[in-house]
Amino acid sequence: MPRSTGRRVLQVLDKAPGEGGVAVHVQWLSEGLAQAGWEVHTLRLHGAAVPPRAGLDRHRLPFSYGRSGAWRHAAALDAVLADARPDLVHLHGATTRLAHPLLARLAAAQPLVATLHDTRLFCYAMTRRFAPDGSPCTRTCGPACFGSGCMRPAGALDALRWQRRQRVDAAALAVWRQLPRVLVPSTYLAALALQHGFAPQALRVLPHPAALPSQSPQPRDTPPLVAYVGSLIELKGPLALLDALERLGDRPWQAVIAGTGPLAGEIARRIARPPLAGRVRLEGALAGRAAVDALMARARVVAVPSLAAESFGLAGLEALAAGTPVVAFAQGGVMQWLRDGENGLAVAPFDTAAFAAALARLIDDADLATRLGRAGRAQVAAQHQPAAALAACAAVYDEALATP
């Protein structure tokens, strides 16, 4: 039994277990803190009509947005705080699902550490792509996004909704700017925060960790396997990956797409037709971390074809931990860990022909893939181990608790 620190932390998130990288990160952090003697409570924000999950939802609060949402749920939040009695609160994203007056209430009630997990505060569409031409966006998010033509309301009623959203989001950003400790997983997200008015002294770059798989190395699949693990949504790029796979020609290869989401039907239809028929398998969600690690370890290359600028791209780091190189578009927080030509290949954003060429290079050259994969695993072992990341996070907690 770990020795208790006598301290309580309330982890606040808007994802259920199994719902992406944020949930994985919070589960890892909670388990590590519990082993270090913290009493960990979790508050899950949830949508309407979402039933409790046994053993997972001791503290729950409905999604809220704006002052009206804060007014409806303030008493419920106070009840959670009274029950959990945290010494410290750690908020994970939830930038549109916890009304900004409730965030201010949390920050005033006890020490608060917040982690930004995505670009939502800095882009209404969460893409950081300029809509008319799809180019990477360097603008500051705000009213000008509507005047530029990037955000185009569909009619007068939609325009009114956008106006309210702009006002509420600006108010939320103002509260976030005042938080004394904001963790970000990449220098890319830190730069966006600085661009949008965050205080430099408040920002701490704390890259996500990845555990080295415990199982012995497995033989790589033959023919060479291209693996994709992630949500089947447009921004994650599974359709862009299919475009790239169609360019690989007659060389021997196979692919596995693991994940769930609204694009599953379209993906299933495309892979049933030539030239992908018989080469690409759609597996759905994998059952647990061990299954993900096993798939990545069998692959010649893991594809990370995100069309939006990722805040970090945890799946790619997990691939490196498995000793497998990554091909990704060179943008956003992916470049926190991806070293072109050292642990994978980075290609120009949105260029599916270049993405296909990078995949082909690793499919054709097993020695190169092995060398890049080994370097990636060594990088994870040296720079992204869970124990070091946990200690860095705990140090921020200690600082928060020690500040009057």
From TrEMBL:
The keyword Glycosyltransferase applies. Pfam families: Glyco_transf_4, Glycos_transf_1. GO terms for molecular function: glycosyltransferase activity. It is an enzyme of class 2 (transferase). Gene3D superfamilies: Glycogen Phosphorylase B. Keywords: Glycosyltransferase, Transferase. Its EC number is 2.4.-.-. Residues 20-208 form the Glycosyltransferase subfamily 4-like N-terminal domain. Residues 217-378 form the Glycosyl transferase family domain. PANTHER family: SULFOQUINOVOSYL TRANSFERASE SQD2. This is Glycosyltransferase family 4 protein. It comes from Pseudaquabacterium inlustre.
